[in-house]
């Protein structure tokens, strides 16, 4: 099946009921351009977001909460990390509405600028020793801005690729875009690992700022790529149909009134992929340093795991096209359940080799099975008029659990007398529940994306 093959507006095709189309044909060159733009956008967005997570684990406690004990400073630092996740649904709602109402491309340009500026400005912040309480206040404000920006970015970038991709290859093509997440993580961890080599005084005075200031340059590169892509063909077809019938959509109200079931399912399947990111890039970083590894060693191990996950994401995306979204996702969640205890045993072993093996297996081999097909899964759950809002809200509400995880896990670590037994149990329970949930979701690989649930525009 080639890009753009399909029926006209109003014809029902495929396994899902209702009118389904692929939109106007997207040339292969445009599909490649959009995929590259999505990859670059995700790389930079997640460089910014994961950079904050690693800094929260290693740097922000003594800089912005120096008046607290080390344990309380760590919890406070992770709490600022959580505020970004709590704001992500707001960003998903705001930019989802704008993307469904006025277009995918301009909305994605806005989220990119907002994220890049917020991250760069973190690198210019004064610390608590310089301005007192205003330092953490400004840090939290910029973290909230990051959360709002990434709340709109992920969903828009995911569906932009999905709406250009041919149905038979949607899992693979969207997974290439999603490979930008580990790419951004690898860059963030590499940057932090380099500055962590500085003497402690230099690291805490000026070295930590450099990775954040780099975001200004990355923003310019991403904007150049993003302005060159075309608008989604499905969105353009929807606008033409809407204009001819003089109808106006209300994406937010339509989502909550008519697509509640899809939204709930989308939230539930979005929790494990986000959880794996925060587990590996934030909590396990802090835990491994406390276990005796140097900051630079831990960050390098996580960076290698992220880099290794770049090629494995498209592989799992391709498997989701061939085998189905559900079996690949379920295999990933079951692997998490099996391997979560060995993950902590490897860290506790004190062996650098086992540390690297643990992070690579967790993030490069297991996590992509859950996350690589998520963009396709969520895009296939919603119709075009509410797809931006639906995909964004599903992913970002699910991500709230992930944002709270480091705080909860650190508290469970204290409860377990610094042993991770209860943290591992929590991850195990979430993984098993997720495996059960995904078996209840309809298989959608190969489906054409739905323009609207009924013929024409309501």
Automatic annotation (TrEMBL):
Residues passing through the membrane, by range: 46-65, 71-95, 107-127, 133-162, 183-200, 206-225, 267-290, 296-316, 328-347, 353-378, 390-415, 421-439
Keyword Transmembrane present in the record's keywords: the answer is yes
Q: How does it sit in the membrane?
A: Multi-pass membrane protein
UniProt-recorded Gene Ontology molecular function terms: transmembrane transporter activity
Q: State the compartments where it is located.
A: Cell membrane
Q: Which GO terms describe its cellular component?
A: plasma membrane
Major facilitator superfamily (MFS) profile domain location is: 34-443
Q: Fetch the CDD domains from UniProt.
A: MFS_ShiA_like (cd17369)
Region Disordered: which residues?
1-32
InterPro entries linked: MFS (IPR011701), MFS_dom (IPR020846), MFS_sugar_transport-like (IPR005828), MFS_trans_sf (IPR036259)
- Matches recorded under Pfam families: MFS_1, Sugar_tr
Kindly state which keywords UniProt assigns to this record, in alphabetical order: Cell membrane, Membrane, Transmembrane, Transmembrane helix, Transport
The protein, known as: Permease of the major facilitator superfamily
Organism for this UniProt entry: Rhodococcus wratislaviensis
């Amino acid at each position: 099946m080639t890009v753009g093959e399909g029926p006209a507006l109003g014809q029902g095709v495929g396994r899902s009921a209702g009118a389904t189309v692929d939109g106007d044909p997207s040339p292969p060159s445009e599909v490649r351009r959009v995929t590259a733009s999505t990859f670059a956008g995700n790389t930079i967005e997640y460089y910014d977001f994961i950079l904050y997570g690693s800094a929260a684990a290693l740097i922000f406690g003594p800089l912005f909460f120096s008046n607290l004990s080390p344990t309380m400073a760590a919890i406070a630092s992770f709490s600022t990390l959580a505020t970004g996740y709590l704001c992500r649904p707001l960003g998903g709602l705001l930019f989802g509405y704008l993307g469904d109402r006025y277009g995918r491309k301009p909305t994605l340009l806005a989220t990119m600028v907002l994220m890049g500026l917020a991250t760069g400005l973190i690198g210019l912040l004064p610390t608590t020793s310089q301005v007192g309480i205003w330092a953490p206040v400004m840090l939290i404000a910029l973290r909230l801005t990051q959360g709002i920006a990434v709340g709109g970015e992920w969903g828009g970038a995911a569906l932009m690729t999905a709406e250009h991709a041919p149905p038979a290859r949607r899992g693979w093509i969207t997974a290439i875009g999603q490979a930008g997440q580990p790419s951004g993580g690898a860059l963030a961890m590499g940057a932090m690992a380099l500055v962590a080599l500085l003497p402690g005084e230099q690291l805490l005075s000026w070295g930590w700022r450099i990775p954040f200031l780099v975001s200004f340059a990355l923003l310019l590169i991403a904007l150049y790529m993003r302005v060159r892509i075309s608008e989604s063909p499905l969105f353009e077809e929807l606008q033409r149909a809407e204009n001819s019938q003089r109808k106006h959509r209300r994406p937010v109200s339509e989502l909550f009134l008519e697509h509640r079931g899809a939204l709930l399912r989308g939230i539930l399947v979005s929790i494990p992929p986000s959880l794996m990111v925060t587990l590996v890039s934030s909590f396990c970083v802090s835990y491994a340093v406390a276990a005796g590894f140097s900051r630079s060693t831990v960050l390098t191990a996580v960076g290698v795991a992220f880099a290794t996950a770049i090629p494995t994401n498209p592989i799992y995306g391709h498997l989701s096209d061939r085998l189905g979204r559900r079996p690949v996702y379920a295999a990933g969640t079951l692997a998490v359940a099996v391997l979560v205890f060995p993950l902590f045993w490897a860290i506790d072993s004190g062996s650098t080799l086992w540390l690297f093996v643990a992070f690579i297996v967790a993030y490069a081999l297991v996590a992509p099975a859950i996350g690589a097909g998520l963009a396709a899964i969520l895009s296939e759950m919603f119709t075009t008029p509410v797809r931006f809002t639906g995909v964004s809200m599903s992913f970002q509400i699910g991500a709230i659990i992930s944002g709270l995880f480091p705080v909860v896990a650190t508290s469970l670590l204290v409860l377990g007398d610094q042993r991770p037994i209860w943290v591992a149990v929590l991850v195990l329970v979430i993984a098993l529940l997720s495996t059960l949930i995904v078996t209840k979701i309809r298989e959608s690989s190969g489906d054409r994306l739905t323009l609207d649930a009924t013929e024409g525009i309501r």
